[in-house]
Amino acid sequence: MYIKDGHIHSPYCPHGTTDPFEKYIKKAIHLGYNEMTFTEHAPLPKGFKDPVPQMDSAMSLEQLEFYFQAVKELQVKYEKIIKINVGLEIDFIEGFEEETEQLLNKWGHELDDAILSVHFLKCSRANRYICLDYSPSAFESLIDEYSTLEGVYEKYYRTIELSITSNLGKYKPNRIGHITLVRKFQRRFPRSFDDSHYIINTLNSVNDRGLTLDINGAGLLKPLCREFYPPLEWVKMAASIGIPLVYGSDAHSAEQLGEGLEEFYNLINY
């Protein structure tokens, strides 16, 4: 069985750990990985102000070349043992499509692999943004912004749809990240509505455009979530309609590598 983890962070993540690259790599080898992609959070687009209090959502532009160089050196060092990809997790931010395309046009040639994710939702008032997965209180601010919990879900999935359909140039990532991240705090904010139609529409859009899907185990570790992004029932549906799936631990420490790995591979090889 060929094992790939396509969503791994690094010591360049300002909100992660200081675990060195080689600690991740050695753990990946121990777990039997054949391939891994470091997908550090790309610098946020020019003109966008990080809304989280510590302003630590992504690495700085000044760090980007050092990050690329570090991963490339590791590719060579471990080439006979494990395939290592140079990657980024690109934030899709509504209203900053042009700036994101400019970033990709400048640096996209360095990438072997990449993910396009939604973390920030544009608010209707005062042209501000909120990071939906930062904290329960930030998520509660979104509920206040959109009046109801379902209003937040509707806005999130509209933004996911924009990420799928927007033209970000020839280096736009072809893998869509953790499509049910809006469920991260679901045990604090339980739904009184069925969100399945949002997920189905998203899967159909991904399939229609020939994109791939990040199947992310990080939600299993979140005490207010405790499920894959997306849950396995939707992974089954995605597989049944032919969407290519890539497991992602979304690890922010070496210890988190492999979360949900066995469940994912058991499912897709069933």
From TrEMBL:
<dbReference type="InterPro" id="IPR004013">
    <property type="entry name" value="PHP_dom"/>
</dbReference>
<protein>
    <recommendedName>
        <fullName>Histidinol-phosphatase</fullName>
        <ecNumber>3.1.3.15</ecNumber>
    </recommendedName>
</protein>
<comment type="similarity">
    <text>Belongs to the PHP hydrolase family. HisK subfamily.</text>
</comment>
<dbReference type="InterPro" id="IPR016195">
    <property type="entry name" value="Pol/histidinol_Pase-like"/>
</dbReference>
<dbReference type="GO" id="GO:0004401">
    <property type="term" value="F:histidinol-phosphatase activity"/>
</dbReference>
<comment type="pathway">
    <text>Amino-acid biosynthesis; L-histidine biosynthesis; L-histidine from 5-phospho-alpha-D-ribose 1-diphosphate: step 8/9.</text>
</comment>
<keyword id="KW-0368">Histidine biosynthesis</keyword>
<dbReference type="InterPro" id="IPR010140">
    <property type="entry name" value="Histidinol_P_phosphatase_HisJ"/>
</dbReference>
<dbReference type="Pfam" id="PF02811">
    <property type="entry name" value="PHP"/>
</dbReference>
<keyword id="KW-0028">Amino-acid biosynthesis</keyword>
<feature type="domain" description="PHP">
    <location>
        <begin position="5"/>
        <end position="216"/>
    </location>
</feature>
<keyword id="KW-0378">Hydrolase</keyword>
